[in-house]
Amino acid sequence: MKNLMIYALIGLGVVAYNVSMQADRDATGAIVTEGSVDAFTIRVGDCFNDTASISTADGGEVSSLPAVPCSEPHDNEVYAVFDLGVSEFPEGNAMSEMAFDACRNRFESFVGIDYGSSALDILALYPTRESWELQGDREVVCAVFEMNAKKLTGSARNTSI
User: Fold this and answer.
1) pTM, whole model, 2 decimals?
2) CA distance linking residue 9 with residue 3, whole number of Å
């Protein structure tokens, strides 16, 4: 019985810690305090910093992102979130290419300048085979970032940079 009580207290502590570390949103949905945002609840206009999973050359699984208000320096800003319209998980590099191409097609309408002329680059977060098969994940998240690794401040929307 003591062990059950200990496990219950530990579980409550973990839940309380996770809740206290989540980013807060205002009535418009904008992030107003930094914290963690679940990757499946990220929205257009959200800003976040890089994680080890994002910067891994072969990609990595991302379950949450370190969100910050866009008024503060940040690495990335989300400009599109959409589901892929394919029925089977693409083989090889096709998933990353498909996600990047779809993000590139949405780039100019957000930034206000075509991708090739911009100082910004694209980060595409997309389903892994495992999340595709086990969770029905079809979501792609497109974010912009500064190519020279400078932090962005404010929104990149309609900046034509």
Assistant:
1) 0.81
2) 10
> To which residue do tokens 């969100």 refer?
67
CA distances in angstroms from 142 to 19, 111, 115, listed in the order given:
26, 12, 13
pLDDT of 5 reads 38
Look at residue 127 and give its three-state secondary structure: coil
Q: What does the angle CA 84 – CA 131 – CA 91 come to, to the nearest 5 degrees? A: 60
Kindly state the tokens that stand for 96. Answer: 């990353």
* Residue stretches of the chain with pLDDT short of 50: 1-20, 56-58
Order of strands across the sheet that contains 35-38:
35-38, 64-68, 47-48, 76-83, 139-146, 120-125
Q: Which amino acid is at 90?
A: P
Closest CA to 103 of 144, 135, 137: 144
DSSP state of 123: E
